[in-house]
Batch of 2 targets.
Target 1
Amino acid sequence: MSISIPLVVIIGVLVWAAWRFMGLRTWQVVLCLLLGFLLAATSAAPEISRILTSITGLLTGR
């Protein structure tokens, strides 16, 4: 699966808003990033990719 740049930007904006307005601390953002990188290296990565593809397909009507 290829994650498009707009999806990455939307998620980035959501994280920035959580950091700015909800009191998310910098170490929590770093922890979330590390979790994402570690999940990408596990056997769960294809399933996560399939779920994200399904969700984006439902949202875009494809």
Target 2
Amino acid sequence: MKTARFFILITLVYFYPIDYSLFAKELTIPELVRFAEPSIVLVEIYGNTLNRGREEFYRSTGTGFVISSDGLIVTNNHVVSLDRPMMWKEKPTITVKFHRQLDFPLSVDVLGKDESSDLAVLKVKEASSSALLVGSSHPDYLTEKGKFHALKWANPESLETGQDVVAIGFARRQKGRASVTRGIISCESRSLWNGALSDYIQTDAAINPGNSGGPLLNRQGEVVGVNTFRFPSRLTKKTIEIPKPKRVEQGIEFTYEQYQVLVDFDTTSSINYARSCRTAKVFAELLKSGPIRRANLGMEVRSVEQFFGDMAHASEGAYISSINSNSIAAKAGLDIYDVIVEISVVDGKIPSGYTKEAEQLFSSKRTFSIESVGDVENALAQISAGSKISIKYLRYIGKYRDAMILGRPIPSEKQAEPLACKPGKVELIVP
């Protein structure tokens, strides 16, 4: 009898794997902050710029967090991007500082950055890591073996709307320790700007300027997202007075100049977004080996609702807005206005120069459900040249499709009628 019970238990564990993160202890907010702070860094980019012929010093800051014991750091691309309105006189310097040693900047290398996902991966230089020991026999961001304290990614399947989350970052260039805000996941997967951006977590935990690149954590101390940006609820014009010093015989007096600026009227109801760990974890792994190289199929896609509106047979997907007649997609049979609903990897090829984890990612057979334009971008980032893929699509047929292709207006009385369509599937080898 005992043998039978043991066999049943082993069978259940083998065929029904347990997500042990569900049993992890929930930390109080102070415990969570103490646990995560050693992994949070202030990211700075600074240097001399030329502005209308004048040399000026420029500095901007953001946040990052350590994801491996050897000093790999995740942050936002826009935090370390060199694209600025002004012109750099020379290549700027990028450094990171840990929260209890803000006087000791550490040099970093930018391993890879990606504008589309707004993510970047940095690596602390070995030559600068000795600065960690300045002023302390054993800093709290190093383990007993001299390794960095690293945060872990959360299981994407554990994300739930209504889940408690905490955002940590160096908001508004405040000196001292990082600031902390708390809230919930308002929506676990959100697409923005007509689907151009996808897989973002919406949260009411405040993400202020400077928080960009910091972690959004669950109560187990795991990273559920990378804080990215905030939409203010309302902007209003406000007149502010700025004192301007002026020398006089008796000393210095101040006059006041008035300026009109746009300010956030109500920060408590702003909408905050963080890149979900579902894709952030994947892109961070790819960025360890350099910039992300997306597969080029020779076509451009846009949101279904952006063009078809109420006539669309499906509210989700991405339609082909333009296609090169000599492209691999056109030769496979895809055409303009086809709506892509799914991309699958049939036979993935492993590119050279990637980590073992990334190689497993490229070689595995995976299916990407396409709900927006951003989903196409995310899928193509995980497909290498030489891979065989299949694409499922919907093709709208009839005279209304012909009218759209020819650029003619569709009769207004038919605008509310769904377009007739038929499903299709093509297979191709990524060039």
